[in-house]
């Protein structure tokens, strides 16, 4: 078990392009979370899955953001028509069970929109 | 609604002296509280958590925090700072029934030699 893995580590894209990030959680963890962290701020909750079900997505920043976890294992976060304001670190976390446990975070994907 | 206020954006201490990172929270329900540390280019690491058991919580690397409901505080302390403690520290709250964690803005801890 190597923890939560996120790919790519860095992504530079031109404004208007679509990007997709991947997160591989710890294998026995049934919950998977996505957060966004902008410079000088703490991470901001976006969405989460329990197994393959997306239980909360109202906090996604706009309809350009979407996430999937098709088989309850890895997850993808897609941003369509990227804007410069989307530049940030995108963090994935996983847990087994509820909030009481605490989450394990990946190292993140840093997105730069030019 | 839940929220977290970290009272200091930067804290600078000398190596070997005590560390105090301050955090106040607001929560509608019985909260869980966490401290996470983020070293440059590394993922967030859980230092410790409070989940309604003992109010004094011990974590990794000699850190501890005390939950004070009357003061709505969850300050992080360490008796003696090491150079390796230099990092960004986040106080985090999770309300009962909340889906995600709410992070504070972070405190940058600087250790002077």
Set out the fold topology.
The complex is a heterodimer of chains A (about 110) and B (about 110).
Chain A: E1 5-7, E2 10-13, E3 19-24, E4 31-37, E5 44-50, E6 53-56, E7 65-68, E8 75-79, E9 88-95, E10 104-105, E11 109-113
Chain B: E1 3-6, E2 10-14, E3 19-21, E4 23-26, E5 32-38, E6 44-50, E7 56-58, E8 64-68, E9 73-78, E10 87-94, E11 102-103, E12 107-112
Q: Could you please describe the fold and organization of this structure?
A:
The model of chain A has no long low-confidence stretch (mean pLDDT 90). Chain A contains no helices and 11 strands. By secondary structure, chain A is mainly β. Chain B has strands spanning 3-6, 10-14, 19-21, 23-26, 32-38, 44-50, 56-58, 64-68, 73-78, 87-94, 102-103, 107-112. In chain B, a hairpin with a 7-residue loop joins strand 10 and strand 11. The mean pLDDT of chain B is 91. The interface between A and B is medium-sized, with 26 and 24 residues.
In short:
With 114 residues, chain A is mostly beta strands. Chain A has strands at residues 5-7, 10-13, 19-24, 31-37, 44-50, 53-56, 65-68, 75-79, 88-95, 104-105, 109-113.
